[in-house]
Design a protein that fits this description.
DNA polymerase, domain 1, alpha+beta, binds FE2/S2 (inorganic) cluster, Ubiquitin-like (UB roll)
Amino acid sequence: MAVRTPEASPGPEAAERGPGPVKVRLGVNGRERGIDIEPRVSLLEVLRAELDLTGAKRGCDQGTCGACTVWVDGRRVLACLTLAITCEGREVTTIEGLARPDGTGDGQLHPMQEEFIAQDAFQCGYCTPGQIMSAVGCVQEGHATDDAEIKEWMSGNICRCAAYPHIRAAIRAARDRV
Ligand code: FES
Ligand code: FES
């Protein structure tokens, strides 16, 4: 399984807070955000419902499809299985922040986004934000040496449209650019 949940569990302080809304501060795409949430709320719910960042998709909501993949401190995680409160003080990156990780807003696409377009690596597009966040992680981790390795390390991201050959082509092309 290539995509994971954060290794750190909530510390004692987090564990004692709630069950009602508590103030949580986290970095999202280069901006510090403060939100009042119940400790039981997932990161996916916070991103989509509280912060209006709907790029990360809710597919299965149980950790099996990868549509909700984002990064926490630069590592890919499944937002549906990640409690938002465990991200306190961490930096969350979503597909909306990938094109402009420095927050400049210049709109320059990431090479992986450009290659997904160039290689026609999607059909309906529902899985695409998660695929791209996972694909960049896959390359950065050094797990994109060949197709077999890409298959293995992208196995947590399901595509119902079966665009896999094109997705792997995009990953190979982006890998060779960076
Ligand atoms: S919605 Fe998170 S893994 Fe499917
Ligand atoms: S492009 Fe449709 S689910 Fe992947």
